[in-house]
Design a protein that fits this description.
The complex is a heterodimer of chains A (426) and B (272). Chain A has two domains: 160 residues, Glutamyl-tRNA reductase, N-terminal domain (Beta Polymerase, domain 2); 145 residues, Rossmann fold (3-Layer(aba) Sandwich), CATH 3.40.50.720. Chain A is 55% helix and 13% strand. Chain A has 17 helices and ten strands. Chain A has a six-stranded parallel sheet. In chain A, strands 2-3-1-4 form a four-stranded antiparallel sheet, sandwiched between helices. The longest helix of chain A is centred in the C-terminal third of the chain and has 28 residues. Chain B has 272 residues and is mostly helical. Chain B is built from nine helices and no strands. The relative contact order of chain B is 0.11. The chains are: A alpha/beta (426), B mainly alpha (272).
Chain lengths: 426, 272
């Protein structure tokens, strides 16, 4: 039987926010959920990740297929969502894929805003909770610690994290430097893209209560407006509502400016030059850059927010590739280690190692004792062999025991004690 | 005695300035508390020194230019401390404190004996004129500081510079609202000062309005602030309002200096 790492759950690629919200484990529920997770038969170890972008269970198991079933039931057990609807959006990663996914999440390569720094802290926290609840064991300990060091390598060796700070966080920070309080402000979304949705979510979290949403496909505007308890507005009419908005987020796929400088001027006059904060999330841009020259309007595009300029988009691509290759290397290393946790290769490696020591030492001794007869030499050989076998007997018996949780622990310990780990793990 | 208090106040102003600046650099919350405490102590000393002098000399306490400066500085600091009670605008403190230090220092350094006040000036209209006028000046001075900070922060937002300074400075809305409130109050007091001043003029010079330099300058400043307040209702807010506040204050300072130092008429010199 081979040990397998699995990740089962939903994330921002596989499921819309309504589904993710339904599945989220809030703080109060997490410990109980971790205890339940421990009781599931096919699951040896488990860690629950629950952020606004993902709800995923990372598990180690000896029986992948039934573990996936058990975890699907586990996630659907909250009764907020039917199993069918969950399965529709479920993403499952197995084996190497799962390890790669975890590493990419830790390194913020799977974030909605690649490189945003919060995810690593969240990951550490969820791992810590699982560790203290006793649901994380040897394999996941190792896998998570490895993921943290992958994240660190990616952060220090590539420009992924340093350049792309969370765009939304930057937008909120700016809004707080323009406006005293956000509670009495209104935000308008022109176009319902993921980035603008994310920024709106951040603004909501920081106090903005009133939202106006417009989109070329009106249904989508209605859908998004419902999520923010906002007002949907037909795209043909949105100009009439501009003057009500203190913050406007543009993310349409339009080829020409949705908001031109003269229009912005008119809007400002209508609202008696009360300040406006415009965030342009789209490429090509939705808002005429000249708008920034109008008094009391502050226009930022995605690059302004991330501090990333057009020129180094290519750099960013290159940095992302570098990060992916770091992840790949680390997945390989981890994979070797995991394979080592199978009893047979560890026992073989252990025997090989001790045997090679015995041979080396025996040859050294025999080289100095030239007067020995062949029988005497054979006796020495047999004696040392017996010694090695007797010493190794108890450890090897232990390594073959059947409790898999324990086995993984002893295998890892044996590799460390006898120095048969891969060099990069020491 | 009052000289000693003023000297201590000066030393405390200097320390408070250093601490405010240190806070702008290091952003350590303890520094902010120390700075505000030092400034409050300086204010106490300064006010005590002025009160002692007033008790000793009566109206003559404001008979000279540098005494006036000292009064205005003290009121400015008091105003800032009021702001500091309610908000966290340390950067305003970092501007107001050194300004108060310089004003009080000039008062200390130019400590010449006060000339006799003309007996005709010793009327109830003198404090009724001087108190609101000085309060108005001090309020305009703080509004000026707020406007400077507004312009700096506005510049950074437009230019998309998000450095340390940007993070430290308060939001535009806070600065603009506070500025508006200060200008409104300053304008009201300034108006009262002009009206009571003309009564004082009636008592001392025999006529309400004599187109004497300070009166003319005051009228110009008054009109400018009136325009500023009115224009806000049609959308002159933010950068334009801040610029006008600065211009208004510059005219105020220019008139104050010119009548006191350059053309001492009947208003300045012996009495500002």
């Amino acid at each position: 039987m081979e040990r397998e790492i699995l990740i089962v759950g939903v994330n921002h690629r596989s499921a819309p926010v309504e589904v993710r919200e339904q599945l989220a484990f809030n703080d109060g529920l997490l410990d109980g959920a971790l205890r339940t997770l421990r009781t599931l038969a096919p699951i040896e170890e488990g860690v629950i990740l629950s952020t606004c972008n993902r709800v995923e269970v990372v598990a180690a198991t000896a029986d992948g297929d039934s573990a996936i079933e058990a975890l699907t039931d586990f996630l659907a057990a909250g009764e907020h969502i039917s199993r069918e609807r969950l399965v529709e959006h479920l993403s499952v990663y197995r084996g190497r894929e799962a390890v790669r996914h975890l590493f990419r999440v830790a390194a913020s390569l799977d974030s909605m805003v690649v490189g945003e720094p919060q995810i690593l802290g969240q990951l550490k926290e969820f791992y810590g909770r699982a560790a203290s609840a006793g649901s994380a064991g040897t394999v996941l300990h190792r896998c998570f610690h490895k993921s943290f060091s992958v994240a660190k390598r990616v952060r220090t060796e590539t420009g992924v994290a340093s350049k792309a700070v969370s765009v939304s966080a930057a937008a909120v920070e700016l809004a707080c430097k323009i406006f005293d309080r956000l509670e009495d402000k209104t935000a308008m979304l022109i176009g319902a893209g993921t980035m603008s949705e994310l920024a709106a979510r951040h603004l909501l979290a920081h106090g903005i209560r009133s939202f106006i949403v417009t989109n070329r496909t009106f249904d989508r505007a209605v859908e998004l407006a419902r999520e923010f308890r906002g007002t949907p507005v037909p795209f043909e009419d949105f100009r009439r509502y501009l003057q009500m908005a203190d913050v406007i987020i543009g993310s349409t796929a339009a080829d020409e400016y949705v908001l031109t400088a003269p229009l912005a001027h008119e809007v400002l006059r209508e609202r008696k030059y009360r300040p406006m904060f415009l965030i342009d999330m789209s490429v090509p841009r939705n808002f005429d850059p000249a708008i920034n020259d109008i008094d009391n309007v502050y226009l930022y595009d995605v690059d302004d927010l991330g501090g990333v300029t057009e020129e180094n988009r290519d750099d960013r691509q290159r940095e992302a590739e570098k990060a992916e290759s770091i992840v790949e290397q680390e997945v390989d290393a981890f994979w070797k280690w995991l394979a080592g946790l199978e009893a047979v290769p560890t026992i073989v490696a252990l025997r090989d190692k001790i045997e090679s020591i015995r041979r080396a030492e025996l040859e050294k001794t025999l080289a100095t004792l030239r007067e020995l007869s062949p029988q005497e030499r054979e006796a020495l050989d047999a004696m040392t062999s017996a010694l090695v076998n007797k010493i190794l007997h108890a450890p090897i018996t232990h390594l073959k025991q059947h409790d898999r949780q324990q086995e993984a622990f002893y295998l890892a310990a044996a590799r460390r004690l006898f120095g048969i780990e891969e060099p990069e793990d020491q | 005695m009052s000289g000693l208090f003023l000297a201590v106040a000066l030393a405390l102003y200097l320390l408070a300035t250093a601490t405010f600046v240190a806070y702008q650099v290091a952003a350590h919350d303890a520094l902010r508390r120390v700075a505000v405490t030092l400034l409050a102590a300086a204010f106490g000393m300064h006010a005590a020194s002025l009160a002692l002098r007033a008790a000793l000399m009566g109206y003559e306490v404001i008979a000279t230019f540098h005494d006036e400066l000292s009064f205005i500085a003290c009121i400015m600091v008091g105003l800032y401390l009021l702001i500091a009670l309610r908000t966290n605008l340390t950067v305003v403190g970092a501007l107001v404190t050194p300004l108060a230090f310089l004003l009080a220092l000039s008062s200390f350094a130019l400590n010449v004996p006060s000339p006799e006040l003309s007996p005709r000036l010793q009327s109830i209209w003198l404090p009724a004129h001087v108190a609101p006028a000085f309060l108005g000046y001090a309020i305009f001075a703080v509004a000026f500081c707020l406007s400077l900070i507004y312009l700096v922060q506005e510049r950074q937002l437009k230019a998309k510079r998000k450095g340390d300074l940007f993070r430290r400075l308060p939001s535009l809305e806070v600065l603009d609202n506070l500025n508006h409130r200060f200008v409104t109050w300053g304008f009201a007091l300034f108006t009262v000062g002009i009206i009571t001043g003309s009564f004082l003029a009636k008592v001392t010079w025999g006529e309400l309005w004599s187109w004497e330099p300070v009166q003319v300058w005051s009228l110009v400043t008054w009109l400018l602030y009136a325009v500023l307040l009115h224009a806000r209702s049609v959308g002159w807010r933010g950068r334009k309002a801040a610029t006008l506040t600065i211009v208004g204050f510059a005219i105020l300072v220019a008139s104050f200096l010119s009548v006191n130092l350059v053309f001492p008429g009947k208003h300045g010199g012996t009495f500002g």
